[in-house]
Amino acid sequence: MTASSFLVLADQLSHLHTQAQHAALQQVNYWLTARNWLVGCYLAEYEQYGQDRATYGERLLAELAKTLRTRGVAGLSLTNLKLCRQFYQTYPALLVTHAATLQAAGLTLPAIGQTVSDQLPATVGGPGIALPALLTRLSFSHFIELLALSTPLQRTFYEVQAVKNNWSVRELKRAIHSALYERTGLSTDKAAVLAAHAGIQAKDGQALSSLLGQFKAPQTPWDDWF
Questions:
Q1: Within this chain, do residues 55 and 132 fall inside the same structural domain, yes or no?
Q2: Would you say the pTM of this structure is higher than 0.90?
Q3: 175 in a domain, yes or no?
Q4: The domain boundary residue, chosen from 122, 138, 154
Q5: What are 124's strand-pairing partners?
Q6: Cβ-proximal residues to 197 (8 Å cutoff; 6+ apart), any chain
Q7: Rounded CA gap, 182 and 161, in Å?
Q8: Cα-flanking dihedrals φ and ψ of residue 74, to 5°?
Q9: pLDDT tens-digit readout, 77-95
Q10: Could you list the residue range(s) of the whole structural domain that residue 117 is in?
Q11: Spatial separation of the C-alpha atoms in residues 96 and 108, rounded to whole Å
């Protein structure tokens, strides 16, 4: 084997490793997001139709978190249950077209989730953004940041920018904290504002990539959820 062919092989295996790692990460992101959306969906169904829901009232989530903890279920604390419910309420149609995928994994939509599919558009989360793109391109950590936004229009702006620019959670936080939505809306040259922000993100991203390259395993944000 020549030196050049050896280097080509090394490049191929390096690329293979990176792509496989990325695919595995996407799968974890997908199923974490799916689980949390389904949790919110089941909570919404119970709060509307549960036979003994009046017994728990406002204590429902606290009692449920306590019961799940005693059963060894991780990642569904009171705070996280509230987030799951808010997630479903904000994106009620997110997984209604994925029933077959969920069923193949042994998961099912409750009746309320099936009803939602008849009431809401199943492919659009906001102007110009497709729900499948949100589901496959954003992690649940992205959604947590989006849930904190105050208006649907503001949320849609950051959804579009995050998908279009392949933002990490850190980059999404930076954009929100720098009031990119407000600055873009007030500017007469919106493209220039977005381009300037993208330049800053790219410079910071290079420095971050160099730092993360020192670690052998990626840092995962799911410790509080699994």
A1: no
A2: no
A3: yes
A4: 122
A5: 130
A6: 175, 178, 180
A7: 14
A8: -90, 155
A9: 999 999 999 999 999 999 9
A10: 8-122
A11: 10
